[in-house]
TrEMBL record:
InterPro entries: Cyclic-di-GMP_PDE-like (IPR050706), EAL_dom (IPR001633), EAL_sf (IPR035919), GGDEF_dom (IPR000160), Nucleotide_cyclase (IPR029787), Rev_trsase/Diguanyl_cyclase (IPR043128), Solute-binding_3/MltF_N (IPR001638). The keyword Transport does not apply. It holds the Pfam family SBP_bac_3. Residues 720-971 form the EAL domain. This is Diguanylate cyclase. The lineage of its organism: Bacteria, Bacillati, Bacillota, Clostridia, Lachnospirales. The keyword tRNA processing does not apply.
């Protein structure tokens, strides 16, 4: 245990040191958001082109530049004394042209080509070698790895002018694939198109660790270089010197950076060819041998006899990312090698050999999944190495034996046997895998052993596949190891370092006698103190719990639980009747909080609670159940007497408002009332719901003060519930129908378009107008389903008209304000229109003015995006709200539909005509087409035409009509 704690502490300190020494972001943000500098002691400043490129270079949440390119530049700055300044070019193409024109000095991660060599200079040494990938969405299962037949006809995006695009075209020609290739200017735009389903795939340089896509093809591995403008040729020498210095000091620097930024991560999965998938579907269990005494890497559980350890977790990872199934057999490594050569096992879980070792033992080794150091194990009093103990079956043992030709070598079947040989004096030293040795050295039995970690020998552990096995097995395992993230292996190591060693209680106490005794004494003392303290405070805590459960902390009134308790007591007498349950609500309470602060809001609640409680009789009760909602149970004699009591309470509250606050307006309280019947079973929950329903009705009805729940309200609630529950069935059974009301030119009554209106052919309730169900669905959010059904039906109909040769005119569809809360609403309607191939200028997105008033900023900000996509924007019922003229200057609308109230009441007098005429003129000057709604007779039509209105809609011209009638009108 002491060794485990010591080793974990050392590892934590090393990790923290690395985190402190390796800068997360090497670029400090300057005053200009698009430029940053690497500071050095020299004064020469080099401008570096930047564009958002994922793990190659990007901005983190702190506004710092990070990524492969950025850290490489940091290292060059340390070696060369150069100072780098970031210049945000916006895109790859823009950055490249800036380099050619000399507007920047340096651009990282550039592919070499002869054509580019005529325009720019390349540093001699490459930054790294990378490949081009064909990526698809993670959930798109249409494509297997290198499934060229499936690739046929794909819509693939590339970066315009990039080498990736050139190599992808060559790849397609090589494999005789015909597909649709689309150019994009920026990486972000390209990947967004893939995410939204506009593209099937993208051909781009390998995206790195944070890629969220599946690679179904990898090709054209090529080096990436730092590129220098020809207008600063002296910079090339500085960079070449710096690159040479970096690679001489650390030849693996590029590989280290690759592992940090570009190697696979946990969100990336291996992709298999069709042939590999066929093998996995048909192959039986793969027999794998593991070393039962190589903990924590591989070992046999003492209790269950099952395979455990880091390598076990790795194989479970492989199973979860493939369709392979493994059967595990425990064998010492030397025995496992023999079984592998005989074809009795298919693979070794752990193998550490090179190509010569593999050849002698008929092994094909995968990529390594763990690089592990080696430890020298000796007795504490021993310094000689005349006799060595080595585990049999590992190449590490052969290397050590070769380096000690004068020593006597004893081979053993397990790590424990090697350690026992040293402990018993049969050997002077053992060379063992550090993780495996450490697992055993924690045993008190080996307290006299000394462990030294060596850098001379490194175990690169991999899976050893039989060379006689199907080649596809090796390919599948190798891909799974390729996509095994290093952080996942680290997690397996941490988990199994604690699990592998079973320590008995006796061993633990023996190793930690005094700490255990002290801990037990401390625990006993704490238990005694806690019991005493709990006994002392039990009554106090119980009282506090009762208060929290049954009393409202702010007002002192009963809480919901307290009110229920008093309700039960008051209604327990079956003879008790004539009670009224009231559900109260302070109108505009949120406005009071927002305007005067929460402290004033609390004072209003306290005063309201005091006024209501003072009005209670001996067999009545009151409680606060939520923010500004109160419930009362009162004796009921008559409606007049009840409303007089409530009015008196509200008057007292208003008197306090005038005397004690600066609130300018009367505080209104509304009540929903439910009367309990003499023979009725008093179910408080149901009655509370009914009183609350009446309260909502009162709150939504202007001028209401107290509303009694009655039979009509119950029937309305039942109907609303029936309509809500039958909506999905109505949509699936095509119970809805679209009617079209034409819009016309007033001058000649020619149809210029139409408005799509919805009707419901309910199987039980008959033909329902939208006023019956749309307000209900608006309240519960279900209106969005109806709106999208209407819009898609209109798109499908226009597609049909187009195919039949019927004249195409714009159709407007009204959308609830709830859609505009969703940031992707423009893309949703665009996808539907594109699905049916409908030009956007034939579709009007209609929003009512009342919706604009409710959520003006959100909706107004979204209208430009809809117009950018090509849709026409129509504002319906304009003039019905209170701030129409104020809104007019902000709207980016195409069509303004004047509310029918203008026509019904606004063309009778001279003053009204002046207002209407000027409104039509202003809208026209703002570039909007004006349509007057509600035109019902010839006189109205003539007056509107005289005032400059060109278009109208109303019963005088056409009533809403079924699709067939409208098609006949168009033809």
């Amino acid at each position: 245990m002491r060794r485990i704690a010591h080793r974990i502490l050392v590892q934590i300190i090393m990790l923290l040191s690395l985190c402190l020494l390796t800068p997360d972001a090497v670029f400090a943000q300057t005053a200009e958001p698009q430029t940053a500098e690497i500071q050095t002691h020299e004064t020469q400043t080099i401008q570096v082109g930047y564009y958002e490129d994922g793990d190659y270079m990007s901005l983190n949440q702190q506004g710092e530049y990070v990524g492969y390119n950025i850290e490489f530049l940091q290292e060059i700055a340390k070696q060369s004394g150069l100072r780098f300044e970031i210049v945000d070019a916006g895109s790859w193409n823009a950055a490249y042209h800036m380099l050619v024109d000399g507007e920047i000095d340096l651009l990282p991660s550039v592919y070499f080509s002869e054509e580019r060599l005529n325009e720019i200079l390349f540093v001699t040494q490459p930054m790294c070698s990378i490949y081009t990938t064909l990526n698809v969405r993670m959930d798109d299962e249409r494509y297997d790895y290198e499934d060229f037949k499936a690739f046929e006809g794909m819509k693939v995006g590339i970066i315009k002018g990039g080498i990736d695009g050139v190599r992808f075209r060559e790849f397609c020609e090589e494999h005789q694939i015909t597909l649709d290739i689309i150019d994009y200017e920026e990486t972000g735009e390209l990947l967004s198109a893939l995410d939204q389903g506009v593209l099937d795939g993208v051909a781009i340089t390998h995206l790195g660790k944070n890629s969220s896509y599946r690679s179904v093809a990898q090709f054209s591995p090529s080096p990436l270089y730092f590129a220098v403008t020809k207008k600063n040729p002296g910079l090339l020498d500085d960079l070449n010197r710096a690159m040479n210095s970096i690679l001489l000091n650390n030849p693996g620097y590029s590989t280290d950076l690759y592992d940090k930024y570009l190697s696979p991560s946990t969100n990336q999965k291996p992709v298999f060819t069709r042939d590999e998938r066929q093998y996995m579907a048909q192959a039986g269990p793969v027999v794998v041998s593991y070393d039962p005494g190589f903990a924590p890497l591989s070992y046999q559980d003492k209790n269950s006899g099952e395979f455990r350890g880091v390598v076990s977790d790795i194989f479970h990872f492989i199973e979860s990312n493939s369709e392979l199934f493994f059967v595990y057999e425990a064998h010492p490594q030397s025995e496992a090698l023999e079984l592998l050569s005989q074809g009795k096992v298919d693979a070794l879980c752990v193998s550490d050999g090179d190509y010569l070792w593999d050849g002698r033992n008929h092994i094909n080794s995968t990529l390594y999944y763990l690089s592990s150091p080696t430890s020298l194990i000796t007795r504490n009093n021993s310094a000689v190495q005349e006799v060595l103990a080595l585990p049999k079956g590992y190449q590490l043992s052969e290397e050590v034996a070769k380096d000690f030709p004068n020593s006597v070598i004893h081979y053993f079947s397990s790590i424990r046997e090697c350690l026992d040989a040293v402990h018993q004096g049969k050997a002077d030293a053992a060379y063992l895998n550090t993780q495996a040795a450490g697992s055993f050295l924690d045993d008190i039995y080996y307290n006299d052993m000394n462990e030294t970690t060596l850098s001379r020998y490194t175990n690169k552990l991999c899976i050893g596949v039989s060379s006689n096995a199907d080649p596809r097995l090796y390919s599948i395992l190798n891909k799974c190891i390729q996509y095994l993230p290093a952080e996942q292996v680290d997690a397996f190591m941490i988990k199994n370092s604690a699990d592998a060693k079973d320590i008995s209680l006796a061993e633990f106490v023996e190793q930690h006698t005094w700490p255990v005794m002290g801990g037990v004494s401390l625990i006993l003392g704490i238990i005694i103190l806690l019991v005493s303290y709990n006994l002392r405070n039990a009554l106090r805590s119980n009282r506090r719990i009762q208060e929290l459960l049954y009393k409202d902390e702010l007002t002192g009134l009963d809480s919901m639980n307290g009110f229920y308790g008093k309700w039960s007591a008051l209604t327990s007498n079956k003879k008790q009747h004539g009670l009224a349950l009231l559900y109260g609500d302070i109108r505009q309470f949120k406005l009071i909080n927002d305007t005067f602060g929460f402290a004033m809001g609390d004072k209003v609640l306290l005063t309201c609670a005091r006024v209501l409680s003072e009005a209670l009789g001996p067999k009545e009760c009151c409680g606060r159940i939520s923010a500004d909602n109160f419930v009362l149970l009162l004796q009921y004699q008559s409606w007049e007497q009840l409303t007089l009591r409530l009015t008196a309470c509200v008057d007292k509250l208003d008197q306090w408002r005038k005397e004690e606050t600066e609130i300018p307006n009367r505080i209104h309280v509304v009540f929903g009332v439910y009367l309990t019947g003499q023979a009725e079973d008093p179910d408080i929950h149901q009655m509370m719901d009914l009183a609350n329903y009446a309260r909502r009705h009162a709150k939504n009805t202007p001028g209401s003060f107290a509303v009694l729940y009655d039979e009509q309200m119950r029937r309305a609630a039942v109907v609303a519930g029936q309509l809500e529950s039958s909506l999905d069935q109505a949509l699936s059974c095509n119970e809805f129908e679209v009617y079209y009301q034409p819009k016309v030119s007033i001058r000649d009554a020619q149809v210029i378009g139409s408005e799509a209106l919805i009707r419901w052919n309910h199987p039980e309730k008959g033909f329902l107008m939208p006023g019956t169900f749309i307000p209900l669905f608006e309240k519960n959010g279900m209106v969005k389903k109806v709106d999208f059904w209407l819009f898609e039906t209109v798109c499908r109909t226009i597609q049909s008209w187009k195919q039949q040769g019927i004249r195409l005119l714009p159709v407007s569809c009204n959308f609830s304000r709830l859609h505009f809360i969703e940031p992707d609403f423009p893309e949703q309607v665009c996808r539907i229109a594109d699905l049916y191939g409908i030009p956007k200028n034939l579709l009007e997105i209609e929003i009512t003015e009342s919706a604009l008033l409710e959520d003006s900023d959100t909706i107004v900000s979204m209208l430009p995006r809809l117009k950018e996509l090509g849709f026409l924007i129509s504002i319906d019922d304009f003039g019905s709200g209170y701030s129409s003229l104020g809104q007019l200057q902000q709207l980016t609308a195409d069509i303004l539909k004047l509310d029918r109230s203008f026509v019904c009441h606004g063309v009778a007098g001279i003053r009204e005509q002046i207002v209407l005429r000027n409104l039509i003129q202003m809208a026209g000057e703002l570039g909007m087409t004006v349509i007057c709604e509600g035109v019902e007779n010839r006189t109205q039509s003539q007056l509107l035409q005289a005032m400059g209105c060109r278009f109208a809609q109303g019963f005088y011209f056409h009533r809403p009509m079924p699709q067939a009638d409208y098609e006949e009108l168009l033809s």
